[in-house]
Specification:
Number of helices: 17
Shape: globular
Number of strands: 21
Strand content: 15-25%
Length: about 475
């Protein structure tokens, strides 16, 4: 279905649920969101535009949702978001190809990495997009991404340049005219129309767009692995972890069994694109690489009267009660940070890999995976290699609206059917070790080594990146 036809099909008037949504968003930003004061200090404040939406409510949900998503994107925190309801949450606007950015001789090139359109061959370069340089288009597109820093927003903008989840970002507008061609050759114009489909159909139609993964095989817990034989016969393992969303009871045994089979000459822990996870899983995973206790990452709440009351009445948050009370007495905006997990609980996980370790990250390494990379770097347990200048900068702990209601039973926070789902970052974390007391939020993890992806990396399965990483095990 064309995007224009889809937008007509979902056109509907604003409902009572949407009025409630704006009230909920305003309340949770004001009372619970941990990043609000810092964002306000930089001139980013979601409260005025939300109040303006309340006072001048659009007539249709399409317009309301587009403006609402822009407000959340401007706030710039992937943990603080608004997920639109059906049919938006099952729909993707797409063009039939994918794009990657390559750096060569100090110049950026935008390469077709996969295509389901015969007129747009894989490996061709996109010179312009609707008459504009692709870099300019990405600079505009990055402003509707939820990343907390430029590297994160840019990485997400490239990923969603041609595939856009309509639950999380406004629909694109108009047709697209590309000027494409082989590198160094005259180009030609191709005109495309945005289409909309569901996730299953999209995956089927764009199956050919997936870049090659040379020699990788499936591993437990959704991971992928392979080994690389080096000169002299030594082998290096490479383990891709796409998600850390499984609880420790499932993820840790699976990783342990996999790591025990990895060569002891070295291991690459590939956390690129690992955007979400379960913090206890990430912290427990760290113990697989060391016999020493790992310091848990400490988290703090923002101090408001409402948040202090919530902490006071919630048994699972008891370790923050004194800190919240003390902070309120002296007028601090944040309480003293406390760990989510006890050291003795983490220490129960036995070490099962003791070879040298390299961690691979990008601008879409986020949240729990980002915390894992930070701890490994801060305690000199691994070298961190990035294909972007930093990770996503998502040092928060999010709660969904359902959690707020379950803990408080406040009528305002009850979920309304057919309404968008709200999520707020309620705690923020600090790094440990050599970067103790440094916030992970915004800055993210700055790699020890940055490798800008080459054309060969994009089209031949990371060949130049692999060579560079393998050479690190000789240093």
């Amino acid at each position: 279905m064309s995007l224009a036809d889809w937008e007509k099909a979902v056109e509907s008037p604003v409902s009572a649920a949407d009025h409630r949504l704006l009230e909920q968003a305003l309340f949770l930003f004001e009372q619970a969101n941990v990043h609000l004061p810092d964002r306000q200090s930089t001139g980013i404040d979601p409260l005025p535009p939300l109040r303006q939406l309340q006072d001048d409510l659009p007539e249709t949900r399409n317009v309301l949702f587009s403006r609402l998503l822009e407000i959340f994107a401007t706030f710039g925190d992937r943990h603080t978001r608004c997920l639109l309801p059906a049919p938006w949450n099952k729909s993707f606007a797409f063009l039939p190809f994918t794009v990657g950015k390559a750096a060569e001789a100090g110049q950026e090139h935008y390469i077709v990495t996969g295509s389901a359109e015969p007129d747009i061959p894989r490996g061709h370069e996109i010179f312009t997009w609707n008459g504009q340089p692709v870099a300019d288009v990405l600079n505009h597109h990055m402003h509707i991404q939820l990343g907390a820093n430029r590297a994160a927003r840019t990485a997400k903008a490239i990923q969603t340049l041609t595939i856009r989840p309509l639950a999380l970002m406004p629909a694109p507008s108009g047709d697209v005219t590309l000027h494409i061609g082989e590198p160094g050759q005259p180009g030609r114009d191709i005109k495309l129309q945005w289409q909309v489909t569901d996730g299953a159909n999209l995956a089927e139609r764009l199956a050919s767009c997936r870049p090659p993964e040379m020699g990788f095989r499936e591993a437990p817990a959704g991971c992928r692995l392979r080994t690389y034989e080096r000169a002299g016969g030594t082998e290096i393992g490479w383990l891709k972890i796409p998600s850390l969303r499984l609880p420790p009871a499932e993820m840790i045994p699976a990783l342990s069994s996999t790591l025990k089979k990895m060569p002891d000459a070295g291991l690459v822990l590939d956390l690129r694109g690992c955007e979400e996870g379960y913090i206890p899983t990430g912290e427990a995973m760290l113990q697989l690489f060391t016999g020493a206790p790992v310091d848990p990452i400490p988290f703090q709440f923002r101090v408001t009267d409402w948040m202090r009351g919530l902490v006071a009445q919630t048994p699972s948050l008891a370790s923050w009660r004194d800190a919240m009370t003390s902070a309120q007495k002296v007028g601090d905006s944040y309480c003293v940070a406390q760990p989510l997990n006890a050291v003795h609980d983490l220490a129960r996980v036995p070490q099962c890999y003791n070879g040298p370790l390299v961690v691979l990250v990008d601008g879409m390494t986020y949240s729990t995976a980002e915390m894992v990379a930070a701890i490994l770097q801060d305690h000199a347990m691994a070298r961190v290699v990035g294909v972007d200048s930093r990770t996503g900068g998502g040092g928060g702990s999010p709660w969904h609206l359902d959690i707020f209601y379950r803990l408080t039973k406040e009528p305002l926070l009850s979920r309304v059917p057919d309404a968008p789902a709200l999520q707020m970052a309620v705690r923020r974390c600090f790094r440990t070790g050599k970067n103790a007391d440094v916030l992970l939020e915004n800055t993210g993890v700055v790699p020890d080594i940055v490798h800008s992806l080459s054309r060969r990396d994009l089209l031949e399965g990371d060949v130049d990146l692999i060579t560079r990483v393998m050479n690190l095990f000789d240093q």
